[in-house]
User: Fold this.
Amino acid sequence: MQFEKVVNVGGTTESGRETFVLNLGPQHPATHGVLRIKLTMDGEYVMHAEPVCGYIHRMHEKMGENRTYAQFLPNTSRIDYLSAMHYTHAFVGAVERAAGIEVPPRAEYIRVITSELNRVSSHLVWFGAFLLDLGGFTPLLYAFDDREKILDLLEAITGARLTYCYYRFGGLCNDVDDDFLRGTRDFVQYMRPRLGMYRKLVTDNIILRKRLEDIGPISAEMCRKYGATGPVIRGSGIPCDVRRVEPYSVYPELEFDIPHYPGGDCMARYDVRMEEMEQSLRIIEQAVAKLPEGPHIAPKVPRVIKLPPGDFYYAVEAARGRFAVRIVSDGKDIPYRVRLRTPSFANLTLFGEASQGMLLPDALALMGTLDLVIPDIDR
Amino acid sequence: MSPSLDELQAAFLQLTASAPPLNNSTVAEPAENGQAAAPSPPLVQITDARAKGYHLDATVATNQVVAAAEIMDKHGFSIDAVTGVDWMAAGQMEIVYDFFHPASPLHVVVRTRVPRDQAELPTIQGVFPGANWHERETHEFFGIKFLGHPDLSPLLLPEDATYHPLRKDFPGAV
Assistant:
């Protein structure tokens, strides 16, 4: 079938076939949150997709302008609730950079361990939910079972299961104990064979491959033009990862690969995330082995933080891609402006172009591989 | 193929030299708390990335933002974000463009300022389609108009919103 350009939205195609508007969401299971997409359809084919956002907009950036740095810190863990460690990392990183606070090595290693655990748990949610979108119910139960072990580990040291506020300016809220380290080592040993099982059970499954291979191609050039990052750009063959490209924390001291696949299709993005979990386990294993002794927080961090005037920027690799904080300070104890650059926002912008001419179920598979978290878009 | 910092600085120096940004060069950072205004920084400067988080800071004239985006595009950069900063005391709006490079550790900040009561500048979404939503968001939060933008309707705020919450004179602002 030949795809045609829509002459006017909600009207007809070039050859006069009638189109119709399909409203996907804001309460649709495949959008995983309150995202609405206005689809102009030619039969089963998407001619035009227009995401409509803002249903859970909370104006975090305004909140940043009327509270102190320490008071704003918990907000950052509520932007992408599946990847909270990375988000708090970016904010404390920006403040530490501006204030010139040296973080003790032990704290940085624990940050890496907890961040990577968080990445695995986030990818496990994506894995379960994505396969649910495609019609496979069973993997969700396995994935959530594994994720539960991570949540238990992190809950024991942070006190939270999802919206962690564990990192503090200059270090961590509290040190980890032997139980956590033992539990983490055990988890790595436990998780590796599970990933092997997922490969056999799901990745090599012919039904899944037929559903994802050559579906939803996104070129490297499109990623660059739209600012798409994370597994989306790595699924288009570019090994773009903030941990490697703009290294932060102690990542340069650890060995890991940046999985990237040139396919650009849904399968490539799927493969990137599955392999990333293995790499995260590798990082965790090394960081636990190399964990130095010492304090978990820098001594003499001022209780009231005032940053020098100017603007400061800090980017991290969150589970969905590049998350960055820009703080504009005017020298007071309250930020003049806090800008939050979120990965889901940038990744969703290319959906309109990428989904053009796709079958509706394939467009949903494409949306699944973008791994959208709606509060991350709406902020 | 990763560009060098000097190459980029030269490209921006050439751009800013071609038409001196009148509305920027004469204005220093606004004085806060009655302190003396800081001297105007150079328009294109290499910054200490360890202290700032970015490598090159370029201030361009309002009508040069598209040309600046084209420089970034030519050197293989990707759009990171577009945002505004309301310098109410100075009567100006600052628009900040962040660019990152997918393959090399380079981060470039391009900034420009417009008068607060006539906040308008050209859109760069023709160069980077990803800027579309960032500009739309900047428009709804700050009331900055991006000329030539296809759709400046509110993205995150309610569709009938007529207010701009990140302006410093927005009720409830501190």
